[in-house]
Write a structure and sequence with these properties.
The protein is an alpha+beta fold. It has a domain at 52-86. It contains 1 helix and 5 strands; from the N terminus they run ββαβββ. The protein has one helix at 33-44; strands at 23-24, 27-28, 47-56, 59-67, 73-79. Strand 3 and strand 4 (59-67) form a beta hairpin. The chain is globular, with a radius of gyration of 13 Å.
Length: 86
């Protein structure tokens, strides 16, 4: 099975609700499920298995499961608004 990750697209104009320059690893904030998966892939180098939105300690996060080259599956919590791991 081959999994293709979406390629990074750079828009000439940003949507009204996103401020210019508000990004992490060239991925616009706030994150969506797709951009959270892309960020996890870029930062870990692993294959993204799933992405779920939830609140953790009253903060909006994406819970991203990643399969690493060594066979380990790790779950990362990534803050929706700033892209930081929690």
């Amino acid at each position: 099975m081959i999994l293709f990750m979406p390629s990074l697209v750079v828009a000439r104009e940003l949507p009204d609700d996103i401020e210019q320059g508000t990004s992490v690893n060239n991925i616009s904030l706030p994150l969506t499920e797709i951009t959270a998966a892309e960020l996890a892939h870029v930062e870990t180098g692993g294959r993204v298995l799933s992405v779920h939105f939830e609140y953790f300690e009253e903060e909006p996060i994406f819970r991203v499961k990643v399969l690493h080259d060594n066979g380990m599956v790790k779950t990362y919590r990534i803050h929706r608004d700033n892209g930081q791991r929690m």
